[in-house]
Amino acid sequence: MTQAPPTARYAFEVESVHKVFAGSQKVFALDDINLKLTEGSFTCIVGPSGCGKSTLLRILGELETATSGTVTRNLSAEGIPESAFVFQEHGVFPWFNVLQNVAFGEHMAGVGKRERTEHARHWIAEAGLSGFEESYPHQLSGGMRQRIAIARAFATGSPALLMDEPLGALDAQTRMLMQEQLVRLWEMERKTVVLVTHSIEEALLLGDQIVMMSARPGRIKEIIDVPFGRPRSMEIEGTPEFAAMKQGIWDSLRDEVQASLRYS
Ligand SMILES: Nc1ncnc2c1ncn2[C@@H]1O[C@H](COP(=O)(O)OP(=O)(O)OP(=O)(O)O)[C@@H](O)[C@H]1O
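Above: query sequence and adenosine-5'-triphosphate SMILES. Below: predicted holo structure tokens.
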């Protein structure tokens, strides 16, 4: 587990969290999760399908409650949500234009029109969407719609960003560009980011640490420190060190994916 430097704080401290979904059949989704996430860190969660990655993210963001255990949040957010979410799809309001979508969080927080418009324009520019302020989501590509969702999450001012496969629906080239953009935005702001992904490459390109989960019931199998520095160039993907880490993670994950297929 990553040791926080003496002056760093933990944004999230997860202790002995279990999650059981009750119903006609009980689903044991999470089993004894313990995790400390340093403020300003970028954590990627990987694991087989159904292992509880989204459930853990939702518990971090208070969209779901743990059956037992505690989550402590040390997030300074006055008058705004502590966490902003980005989901794989359906993350934008189709009836709002780009500017209204990006300004939405601050609108809800009661920020004045002039100020929130100024902030929204800033994040629209950073997300490479200048010139599209008046466009509606259906007039834009899937990649551009995801950029609206990411710009909106940054524009909320929330200290934590919780992202569930935010780039999962994009084609390979758009995804690579978006990974670069996401790293650049995060390096400017240093929010605490937790990103769920099925891609080991993406986790290595973006994260400071990778939380690897086991097949259901999801446990933390391993926490891997990513050794690549910041600012991070996507060119690391071509290095032997990157290839070796990717192989090592896959060797460990393969057993879990096989287990999840056996029991699903
Ligand atoms: N609201 C719910 N009610 C009942 N079961 C649920 C609910 N939400 C999730 N589950 C179950 O909990 C388990 C974990 O689900 P979760 O979506 O967290 O997994 P995941 O790792 O994010 O999966 P994937 O990678 O396929 O998106 C699954 O078996 C899922 O069916």
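The chain has seven helices and nine strands.
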